[in-house]
């Protein structure tokens, strides 16, 4: 009996040790920069039985603290005291709409649900959604808001916004609604008209839905992330997901414009062209160096590989092979780094940043939860060449969101330009909108004299 007990104890110790070994996580072999650019380093995948968990615990800014802007620029608080601010939209009169929003309630059970709830809580994303769009007004253009209004309330994890003529379109996680709007409105109380339903079946991972109006005003583009990591819950749950959808507003007809993108979020037109781009969060649990998140043009009828492949036909060994599909897949244009979680994108052409940040894309990298060491937690600039293609390596425009103790004081989420050409960055952990401008930049009134 004693011998059996000793064997049992030994087996238990070995099992616990094996469990800790499997859960120790994967450490990057490459510097983050190696997984960026037009030709990112696509190293061998390292399959993980458990995700590498390395979250920067949220510890919001104290008064007077803030991130660090690149040399020659200043960063200031444009608005604060917001409840998990995410997407922003500038109205024609300069008013800024900001969605105070978060994931809808989830019913995920088991160990996966427990892990996700704890991760979200530690990262500062475990609070209920305010389900509100707030209007911020800077009447005197001094870089700080004068007035703030609860513009719309009672929404359902709202995110994307678009204005076409006198209709404001809002994307809830499960639908797109249209509301009447006239310039200067500070509150909308009308019931929205449903334009389209969106797939929000449980567990509804990747709940954000960004909107982009076509240049002719006839269509809305909608980014919808996948419901899983690699389709492990069945592809039926992925219907009209991992895609950019297009809705014809005259008929409300909805089509898949492009797909195979695990989690596309922000979208923006490249100025002077009909091309639009998105930033995409790639798959997890293939090691800290894989797979690079990316920036890419969204082309009609293109497939970018998910879930079967990544980066132009590279096989994900965890997914059933689909080699016939492989020859038709489009390779993304530009790597943003593995697990950096890019969310927001805006183009800086004809804005107020000036050289060397005035001919490319500004991208908010929300920050990793499953990479060692941490990655992202910054705002970077990607230069575009004279042919309208991304080039070079990302340049850091705003950093310092993670302190020396690896606490996340904030997390950059989405980006937009204000009426003066300064860059606005939403910080969902800090509850702040940051404003970045050139040092010594003249106020619009002074520049006009």
TrEMBL record:
<dbReference type="InterPro" id="IPR054539">
    <property type="entry name" value="Beta-prop_PDH"/>
</dbReference>
<feature type="domain" description="Pyrroloquinoline quinone-dependent pyranose dehydrogenase beta-propeller">
    <location>
        <begin position="329"/>
        <end position="438"/>
    </location>
</feature>
<dbReference type="InterPro" id="IPR011042">
    <property type="entry name" value="6-blade_b-propeller_TolB-like"/>
</dbReference>
<dbReference type="InterPro" id="IPR011041">
    <property type="entry name" value="Quinoprot_gluc/sorb_DH_b-prop"/>
</dbReference>
<feature type="domain" description="Pyrroloquinoline quinone-dependent pyranose dehydrogenase beta-propeller">
    <location>
        <begin position="67"/>
        <end position="287"/>
    </location>
</feature>
<keyword id="KW-0812">Transmembrane</keyword>
<dbReference type="Pfam" id="PF22807">
    <property type="entry name" value="TrAA12"/>
</dbReference>
<protein>
    <submittedName>
        <fullName>Sorbosone dehydrogenase family protein</fullName>
    </submittedName>
</protein>
<keyword id="KW-0472">Membrane</keyword>
<keyword id="KW-1133">Transmembrane helix</keyword>
<feature type="transmembrane region" description="Helical">
    <location>
        <begin position="7"/>
        <end position="23"/>
    </location>
</feature>
């Amino acid at each position: 009996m004693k011998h059996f007990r000793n064997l049992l104890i030994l087996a238990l110790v070995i099992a616990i040790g094996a469990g800790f070994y499997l859960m120790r996580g994967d450490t990057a072999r490459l510097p983050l920069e190696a997984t960026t650019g037009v030709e990112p380093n696509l190293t061998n995948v390292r399959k993980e039985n458990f995700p590498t968990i390395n979250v920067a615990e949220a510890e919001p800014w104290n008064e007077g603290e803030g991130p660090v802007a690149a040399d020659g620029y200043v960063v200031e608080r444009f608005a604060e005291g917001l409840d998990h601010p995410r997407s922003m939209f500038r109205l024609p009169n300069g008013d800024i709409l900001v969605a105070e929003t978060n994931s809808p309630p989830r019913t995920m059970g088991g160990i996966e649900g427990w892990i996700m709830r704890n991760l979200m809580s530690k990262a500062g994303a475990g609070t209920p959604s305010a389900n509100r769009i707030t209007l911020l007004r800077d009447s005197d253009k001094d870089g700080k808001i004068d007035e703030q209004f609860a513009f719309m309330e009672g929404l359902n994890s709202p995110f994307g916004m678009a204005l076409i003529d006198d209709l404001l379109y809002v994307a809830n996680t499960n639908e797109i609604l249209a509301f009447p709007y006239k310039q200067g409105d500070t509150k909308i109380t009308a019931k929205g008209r449903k334009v389209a339903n969106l797939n929000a079946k449980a567990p509804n991972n990747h709940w954000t839905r960004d909107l982009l109006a076509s240049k002719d005003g006839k269509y809305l583009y909608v980014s919808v992330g996948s419901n899983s990591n690699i389709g492990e819950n069945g592809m039926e749950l992925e219907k009209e997901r991992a895609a950019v959808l297009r809705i014809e507003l005259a008929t409300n007809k909805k089509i898949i414009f492009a797909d195979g993108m695990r989690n596309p979020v922000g979208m923006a037109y490249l100025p002077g062209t009909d091309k639009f781009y998105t930033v995409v969060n790639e798959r997890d649990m293939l090691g800290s160096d894989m797979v690079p998140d990316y920036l890419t043009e969204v082309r009609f009828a293109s497939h970018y590989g998910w879930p079967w492949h990544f980066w132009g036909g590279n096989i994900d060994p965890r997914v059933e092979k689909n080699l016939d599909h492989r020859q038709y897949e489009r390779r993304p244009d530009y790597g943003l780094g593995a697990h950096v979680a890019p969310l927001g994108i805006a183009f800086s052409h004809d804005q107020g940043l000036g050289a060397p940040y005035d001919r490319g894309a500004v991208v908010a990298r929300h920050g990793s939860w499953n990479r060692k060491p941490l990655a992202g937690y910054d705002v970077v600039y990607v230069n575009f060449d004279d042919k309208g293609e991304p080039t070079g390596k990302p340049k850091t425009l705003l950093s310092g969101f993670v302190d020396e103790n690896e606490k996340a004081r904030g997390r950059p989420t989405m980006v937009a330009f204000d009426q003066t050409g300064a860059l606005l960055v939403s910080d969902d952990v800090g509850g702040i909108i940051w404003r970045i401008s050139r040092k010594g930049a003249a106020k619009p009134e002074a520049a006009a004299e």
